[in-house]
Design a protein that fits this description.
Chain lengths: 369, 399
C-alpha cells in the first residue's frame, strides 16, 4: 500500500485546486449559479481546456485519466469552490457512453465542445436504480421513447441526453433496461429547468415519442447504470470532502477570531471538543473517499462506495450542522460563505442514494458475502 | 397523578377547536400548512381574531386581562392551534415586551402601550443582539446619552438579527447608558419609535434566500427619557426577567406535533420499492424515535410550566426545554427532507410567497421542505444559543 498520489495525479490535483482558488471566489460562484444556464460556459470551456474534464475518463474511452483517484481529486477541488459548471453531468453521461464504446461522444465531452446529461431517475424511483418505467419502442432503424425523467442534473443545458428506458420487462426488473442517446433539441423532448436549493441546475424531462439511438446492448444496461451511479456517488463524496474542508477551515478560523466574553470563543472547551470531533470525522470521510476511489474499478466497488456515501450522509451532516451552529447567526446568512458549503454537503445526501439507502446496501452486501 | 383530561379540560379543548374551525381564516391556515410566507396583513388578521376571543393575551396575568390558564390549558391551546394551521403569534409585543411592562413599566407606559399591542396599533420588534454582542449580550455597545435638556437620550449604534423589523413600528432595545463597573450594570431598557429620524432598517437575507431578519442602525436618534422602562442602568435585570419569565412556548410542542403529522403524511405518500416509505424499517425506526421523544417532551413541558406557576424555580428546566425542543424540531426537519429523496433538491423560492403561481417540481408538498430544514438551524442559535442554555443550566446546578 501507498497513500501518496503519483506525481502526475498530484499535478492534476494541484492544478484543479489552483484553478478553483484563483477563479472561483464565492461571488464568482454565485454569479455563475444565477445565470440562466446556472454556470459559466466560458469557465467550463477553460477548465476543459486544462484537461479537468478529460481527466475523468480513461485513455481508451477518450480521456486521459478515469481512475477513481483522478475523479476524486478533481471533484474535491470542485467542492472547495462549489463549482456549478457541469462536471457531474459530464461524468455521468461520459461514463455510460464509455461503457458503450462511444469514444467520439466521450471525446466531445472531454474537450468541452458538447454538453451531455444522464437522464435516469424518475418521479417515483427514489434511489432504486432498477425502477424504470420510461418505455422504448422500435421505430424503423431506431427507437422512440416515452416517459418522465426527474431531477436530471445539467438537463437544462445539455445538447445530448443519455436516457434509460425499458425495452422489456416490468418496472423494477433489473433486466430489460436499455440506454439511448437523444438529441435534447429534438421533437418530443420537453425540458423544464430549475435550480436546486444549493444552486445547481437540473431539470424535469418529459419524453413523448422522442427519437432515440440505442447505445450498448438492448436490455442489459443495468450494470452500466450501477457503474454510473457508483461513479457519481464517489464523485460527490469527494466533492463533499472538499466542501467539508472549507467548512472546517472557516469554522476553525472563526473560533480563533470571534471574541465573546473577552476572549476568542475557540478558548471555550465546550467548543474545542466539538471542533476536534469535526476534524476526526473529516479524517474518517477522507479515508472512506480514498477507499471508494481505490475500489471504483474493482470488485469491492459497491461496498466501498456505499460506505463513503453513508459517512458523508452521517458525518458530513454533523460537520455541516456544527459549522453553522458554532459560527452562530452569521452562518445563517446568505452573505456568509459557510452556509453555502453546508447546504452543498447536506444536499449531496440526496444524490445517488442517501445515508439510509447506503446503510441498507452495506447490510445486503454483507449478507450476500 | 392523573393523565386523563378532566371534563373541564375536554370542554376547553372543544371550545378551542370550535374557535379554530370558525375563526381561524382558512386562507391563513392553508398558507401555514403549505409553508408559505405570511404577510404582515395575515398576521394582523390572525391577531385580531385571537384578540376578539380573548386568546391573544390569555398568557398575561389576570390583572392585565389574562385568562389565568394552567399548563394543561396552555398545552391544549398550543397543540390545537398548531394542528389547525394557526400561525404562531408574533411574540415581540405580546410575549416579550408586555411581561416587561407588567413587571417594570410605569402606569402610564402600561396604559399607553398594552392596549396598542392588543389591537395591533403597534408592531414591535426586539433590539438585543449586536454584531459584537451575541452570546455575550452584556457586552452590547449601542449608546444612549442624555442630551443637554436631560429630557432625551441620543442613541447611536447598531442592532442585528431583528426579526420582522421590516414590519415594525417600535423596537425595544437594550442600550448602554454607562461604562462604569461591570458591563451588566450600565444597560437600560428603551422603547424607540422606528419612525424617528436616524433609524434605518437593512435586510439580512438568510441562507435559503428569505428575508426575516434585519440590521437596524441608529444615528443620533432622539428618544424621550419617558420611553425608558425601569430605572437607568437596571436594564439587565429586565433582560434576565424576560429570559426566565416568558418562556411558556419555548419547547414548541404544538409545532413539533404538527410537523410530525406532516412528516407521517409524506412518509405514507412517498414510495420506496413500491411500498410506503413509512413501512421501510430504517425510516420507521427514525420516525418512532422522534415520536418517543416528543411524547416525553410534551409531559416535561407541562410539568415545568406547572411548577413555574406554583412559584417554583424553573430556570434550568426552561433552558433544558429550549435545547430539547429545538433539537427535536430539527430532527423532524432532517427526516422530512430525507423523506423526499431526490425531490428535496428542486427549489423555487418565489413559490413560497402566498399568491405565487410559480411552478414547483416534485410532489406538491416538496418545494419548501429543504429550505425549512436549513431555516430551522436558526432555532438552536437564537433566543440564547443552546450553548448559552447549557451554560445557564451548568451555572445553576454545578456551582
Amino acid at each position: 500500500m501507498n497513500f501518496n498520489h503519483t506525481e502526475e495525479r498530484q499535478m492534476l490535483a494541484d492544478m484543479a485546486e489552483r484553478f478553483v482558488r484563483e477563479n472561483l471566489s464565492i461571488d464568482d460562484r454565485h454569479k455563475a449559479a444565477s445565470r440562466d444556464d446556472g454556470f459559466s460556459r466560458e469557465r467550463f470551456a477553460e477548465m476543459a481546456e486544462l484537461g479537468l474534464v478529460g481527466a475523468l475518463f480513461s485513455e481508451e474511452a477518450g480521456g486521459f485519466g478515469g481512475t477513481g483517484f483522478d475523479i476524486a481529486v478533481v471533484f474535491e477541488a470542485l467542492g472547495k469552490g462549489l463549482v456549478t459548471e457541469p462536471f457531474l453531468p459530464s461524468l455521468l453521461a461520459g461514463t455510460a457512453l464509455a461503457k458503450a464504446g462511444r469514444t467520439d461522444d466521450v471525446e466531445a465531452i472531454a474537450s468541452g465542445e458538447a454538453l451531455y446529461a444522464f437522464a435516469h431517475g424518475e418521479p417515483s424511483s427514489r434511489y432504486t436504480l432498477e425502477h424504470v418505467s420510461t418505455t422504448a419502442k422500435k421505430a424503423g432503424d431506431g427507437y422512440t421513447l416515452g416517459g418522465n425523467k426527474a431531477v436530471v442534473l445539467g438537463g437544462t443545458t445539455a445538447d445530448h441526453l443519455v436516457v434509460s428506458a425499458r425495452t422489456s420487462g416490468s418496472v423494477d426488473d433489473a433486466d430489460g433496461i436499455s440506454l439511448f442517446l437523444v438529441d435534447a433539441k429534438s421533437d418530443g423532448v420537453h425540458i423544464r429547468g430549475y435550480s436546486t436549493i444549493d444552486g445547481y441546475p437540473a431539470a424535469e424531462i418529459a419524453l413523448k415519442d422522442a427519437a432515440a439511438e440505442l447505445i450498448g446492448d438492448e436490455g442489459l444496461a443495468i450494470e452500466t447504470i450501477r457503474a454510473v451511479n457508483s461513479t457519481g456517488a464517489l464523485a460527490v463524496s469527494a466533492e463533499a470532502l472538499g466542501a467539508i474542508e472549507v467548512c472546517i477551515y472557516m469554522t476553525m478560523d472563526y473560533l480563533k477570531t470571534r471574541t465573546q466574553f473577552g476572549r476568542p470563543i475557540g478558548t471555550f472547551q465546550a467548543l474545542q471538543h466539538r471542533m476536534v470531533d469535526m476534524m476526526g470525522e473529516r479524517e474518517q470521510i477522507r479515508s472512506a473517499v480514498i477507499n471508494a476511489a481505490g475500489h471504483l474499478l474493482g470488485d469491492q466497488r459497491d461496498w466501498h462506495v456505499s460506505a463513503a456515501k453513508n459517512l458523508i450522509g452521517r458525518s458530513g451532516r454533523m460537520i455541516a450542522e456544527e459549522s453553522i451552529q458554532m459560527h452562530g447567526g452569521i452562518a445563517m446568512t446568505w452573505e456568509y460563505a459557510v452556509a453555502h458549503y453546508a447546504k452543498r454537503v447536506i444536499m449531496i445526501d440526496h444524490l445517488f442514494g442517501d445515508v439510509d439507502h447506503h446503510l441498507e446496501q452495506i447490510i445486503k452486501l454483507g449478507r450476500a458475502a | 397523578m392523573d393523565l386523563n383530561y378532566s371534563p373541564e379540560e375536554l370542554a376547553f379543548r372543544d371550545e378551542v377547536r370550535t374557535f379554530m374551525e370558525t375563526k381561524l381564516p382558512k386562507d391563513i391556515a392553508q398558507k401555514v400548512k403549505t409553508k408559505k410566507n405570511l404577510t404582515k396583513e395575515d398576521q394582523e388578521r390572525w391577531h385580531a381574531a385571537l384578540n376578539e376571543a380573548g386568546y391573544l393575551n390569555a398568557h398575561w396575568p389576570t390583572d392585565f386581562g389574562g385568562k389565568g390558564w394552567n399548563a394543561i390549558q396552555r398545552d391544549i391551546f398550543d397543540v390545537e392551534s398548531e394542528a389547525a394551521g394557526g400561525p404562531r403569534v408574533v411574540p415581540f409585543g405580546l410575549n416579550m415586551l408586555a411581561p416587561v411592562l407588567h413587571a417594570f413599566g410605569s402606569k402610564e407606559q402600561q396604559d399607553h402601550y398594552l392596549p396598542r399591542i392588543l389591537d395591533g396599533t403597534d408592531w414591535w420588534c426586539q433590539g438585543y443582539s449586536e454584531p459584537g454582542a451575541g452570546s455575550d449580550l452584556a457586552s452590547l455597545k449601542m449608546s444612549a446619552v442624555l442630551d443637554d435638556s436631560g429630557e432625551n437620550y441620543i442613541v447611536n449604534g447598531q442592532k442585528t438579527w431583528t426579526t420582522l423589523g421590516q414590519h415594525a413600528d417600535w423596537i425595544f432595545c437594550l442600550v448602554r447608558t454607562s461604562n462604569e463597573g461591570k458591563p451588566q450594570e450600565g444597560i437600560s431598557f428603551l422603547l424607540i419609535d422606528m419612525n424617528t429620524p436616524g433609524v434605518e432598517v437593512r435586510p439580512i437575507i438568510l441562507l435559503e434566500g428569505t428575508h426575516e431578519v434585519n440590521e437596524v442602525w441608529f444615528t443620533d436618534v432622539k428618544v424621550p427619557v419617558a420611553n425608558r422602562v425601569g430605572e437607568e442602568n437596571k436594564g439587565w435585570t429586565i433582560a434576565k426577567y424576560l429570559l426566565v419569565h416568558e418562556r411558556s412556548g419555548i419547547a414548541c410542542v404544538g409545532d413539533a406535533l404538527a410537523s410530525l403529522d406532516h412528516l407521517k403524511h409524506i412518509a405514507e405518500d412517498q414510495k420506496k420499492d413500491g411500498k410506503a416509505l413509512a413501512e421501510d424499517p430504517f425510516f420507521a425506526a427514525r420516525l418512532a424515535q422522534i415520536e418517543i421523544d416528543i411524547s416525553a417532551m410534551r409531559t416535561t413541558n407541562m410539568r415545568v410550566q406547572q411548577a413555574g406557576m406554583e412559584g417554583k424555580e424553573i430556570g434550568p428546566q426552561v433552558s433544558q426545554l429550549k435545547i430539547t425542543g429545538t433539537v427535536l424540531r430539527q430532527s423532524i426537519n432532517d427526516l422530512t427532507r430525507r423523506a423526499l429523496g431526490p425531490y428535496a433538491m428542486p427549489f423555487v423560492s418565489e413559490a413560497l410567497e402566498g399568491g405565487s403561481n410559480a411552478e414547483t417540481f416534485g410532489p406538491d408538498y416538496a418545494n419548501p421542505l429543504a429550505a425549512d430544514y436549513f431555516n430551522h438551524r436558526k432555532t438552536s442559535i437564537y433566543g440564547g444559543s443552546n450553548e448559552i442554555q447549557r451554560n445557564i443550566i451548568a451555572k445553576m446546578t454545578l456551582s
